[in-house]
Specification:
Largest sheet: 5 strands, mixed, barrel
Number of strands: 7
Shape: globular
Protein name: Replication protein A 70 kDa DNA-binding subunit B/D first OB fold domain-containing protein
CATH superfamily of the largest domain: Nucleic acid-binding proteins
CATH topology of the largest domain: OB fold (Dihydrolipoamide Acetyltransferase, E2P)
Organism: Glycine max
Pfam family, one: DUF223
Structural class: mainly beta
CATH class of the largest domain: Mainly Beta
Distance between the termini: 56 Å
CATH architecture of the largest domain: Beta Barrel
Strand content: 35-45%
InterPro entries: NA-bd_OB-fold (IPR012340), RFA1B/D_OB_1st (IPR003871)
Length: about 150
């Protein structure tokens, strides 16, 4: 019997043998092509929960042609690390890294949601009610804090 996919919400750093059914809702490349390039992605699952994933240059060669924004996949085996960098693209406490044993298989999972914009009330931005360090629509909370008086 096939194993039921894990939910992004349940990722708590206790296991790395994850099986996820996800849609890549954001995909971008960082670095210099053919040198130290890495891929960064945001996955969404059937519950609408999101998590940041990174494919470093040493694993990117095997996956670059297969990873496409808005496509759906079943993926296994990631390294799970705290999402505690200076800037975060998702609120999830953890992020995922592709490793040598990560498996990616494209799948027709039409029930998975597409990118959903999560707008914040402008009054909350002005009042300072936001998560510091979280990138929101390309702006970081640090930028918003700095220019808060200008709104």
């Amino acid at each position: 019997m096939a194993r039921i996919p894990d939910k992004i919400r349940s990722i708590d750093g206790s296991k790395e043998a994850l099986k996820l059914a996800v849609r890549i809702i954001d995909l971008w490349f960082v670095g210099t092509p053919n040198k130290s390039e890495q891929s960064e992605m945001v996955f969404v699952d059937s519950e609408g929960d999101q998590i940041h994933a990174i494919c470093k240059s040493d694993h990117l060669k095997s996956w670059k042609a297969d990873l496409k924004e808005n496509c759906t996949y079943v993926m296994h085996n990631f390294k799970v690390v705290k999402n505690d960098g200076q800037f975060r693209v998702c609120e999830h406490e953890y992020k995922l890294f592709f490793i040598g044993v990560t498996v990616v298989r494209e799948a027709n999972l039409h029930e998975l949601p597409f990118k959903e914009f999560r707008f914040v009330e402008f009054a909350n931005v002005v009042a300072g009610n936001f998560v510091s360090g979280l990138l929101v629509g390309g702006l970081s909370a640090c930028f918003i804090e700095k220019y808060q008086g200008c709104f």
